[in-house]
Amino acid sequence: MSIDCDQNLIDVPAARSEKTGFECRQKAGPAEWGGLAVLALPTALLGLDVTLLYLALPALAADLKPSSTQALWIMDAYGFMIAGFLITMGTVGDRIGRRRLLMIGSAAFGLASVLAAYSTSAGMLIAARAVLGLAGATLMPSTLALISNMFPDARERSLAIGVWATMFALGMAAGPLVGGILLERFWWGSAFLVAVPVVAVVLISAPLLLPEYRARKSGRFDLLSVMLSLAAILPVIYFVKESAKAGLSLGTVAALMLGVVFGIVFVRRQRLLSDPLLDVGLFRNGAFSVALSILLIGLVAVGGAMLLVTQYLQLVMGLAPVAAGLWLGPPALMMLVAGVAAPLLARRVRPGFVMAGALGLSAVGYALLALLPHMAGIELVVAGYSLVYLGLGTIAALGTDLVVSTAPPEKAGSASAMSETVQELGVAVGVATLGSLTTAVYRSAILEHIPADLPAGVVRAAEDSLWAVSSASEQVPQSLVDHAKAAFVSGLSVSATVAMIGIVALAVLSAVALRHIGIIGGDQ
Length: 524
Description:
Number of helices: 17
CATH class of the largest domain: Mainly Alpha
Structural class: mainly alpha
Strand content: under 5%
Helix content: over 70%
Strand order of the largest sheet: 1-4
Number of strands: 4
Mean pLDDT: 78
Number of domains: 2
Order of helices and strands: EEEHHHHHHHEHHHHHHHHHH
Oligomer: single chain
Distance between the termini: 19 Å
C-alpha cells in the first residue's frame, strides 16, 4: 500500500519525494525550510512572553498592587486559557486551515498585548492575559501541525521540531535581556508591546511563505464537545489552583469531581462521533501516552522554577532587570542547545534513553537549587537552572516529536494541541502548586519574626509574600526584610526538592517505558 505524498496539502509548493517500494518519503525543499523560519516567529514570541512577564512582575506589582492570589492569576491565567482551548483550536485548524488560524490568532495576540500593556488594574491585566491565552491557543497547534505536514520525513521532522523548540528557547533567552532593557527605560507595560511588531511580520509573511493545510474530510464541528471539554478542564483547573492555595475543601473536591464527570462524558461522546473533537484512540499508543505524561510532569517542575528563580534574582539578590535578564540568558541558551542536539543524538541513541539522561541532569539542577539556603550564590542558581533547562529542551523536542509522529496527517492539529495542552497546563500547574508551596513555607517561617508594633498594613504585606515586603520596604525594618528573604529561600528549597523527586521518577519512566522506541529514522 502506498502512502499519499500530498497529505491534505492546499496551495503547497512543489516538494521533492523519494519512492522506494511501498514507501513514499517526501523530502522538504527550500520552500518548506523558509516556511519554518516564518513559524519560528510566533513560537519565539510565545517564549518571549513567558520570560518578559516574570521579570516585569515586581514592577507591575508595585504599580497595580495585586494580592498574592491575583499575582498568581496574572502569571497563570494565560496558561490555563491555552490549556482550556488548545484542543478546540487544534481541531478548528484542521477544518478551516492551519495557516488561516495562525493568522487569526496572531492578530488577536497583538491586540490582546496592547490591552495588557495599558491595563490600569490587576483585574484588567488578568482579563488581558486570559485573552492572550485564548489567542495563544490558536498559535501553538497551528505552528506545530504545519511543521508536521511540511516535514513528513522522520529525520527532517524531528530536526524541524527541535528547531521549533529551540526558537521557543531563543525567545526565552532574549526575553530577560529585552525585558530588562525595556524596564530600565519604560514602564512595565512596554514588555507586552514587543509582540506588536512580531505579529505584523507574521501577518505579512505568512501568506507569502506558508502553504495552507486542512483536512480533506472534516465532519461537522461539534459545539457540544467543545462545551464538554471546557466543562471538564476548567473545574480541574479551579481545583488545582484553590487547593494549592488554601488546601482541600468541600468546594474544591466538588469541582474536581465535576470535572471528572464531564471528562468521562466528553470521552464517551468522542468515541461515538465519526469525526470527534479529540481522537481518544491516539491514547492506545503507549509512546503517545508516556510522552504526554513526561511533558506534563516535566513542565510542572519547570513552571514553578521559572517563577521562583526570577524572583530570587531580583528580590533576594537585588539585581536590576537588565542584570537579571543577562544571568537568565545562559540557562535558556542551554535549552536552545538541547533542542537542536537531542534530535541529532536520537539518530544514534534511542529517544527514551536520551530523555532519561537529560532528565537525570535536570534533577541535579533542582538539587543545586535546593541547596540555596546553605550555599547561597548566583553562580549556583545559574548552574542549577541551566541543567533544569537542559532537560526541558530535550523533552520539548523529543517528547513533542513522539506525540506528533504517532498521529495521522489529518489529525496533526489535534495531536499538536494535546502536546501543547499538557505543556501549558504543566507550566500553569507548576506556578500554582510550587508557587503556593513556596508561599506556605514562607508564611510559616516569617510569622515568628514579625514585630508586634508594626502597622496592620505592613504586617499583612509581611505575611503575604516577599515581593509585598519589597514593595513596602520603606515601612519595613531591615531585619524583617532579611528574614523575609531567608523565608522565601527556604520555600524555594522545599519546592526544588519536590521537583527533583518528580524529575527522577520521570527519568526512570522514560528509560523503562520508551526503551522500545527505535532511533529516529531507523527501524522501530
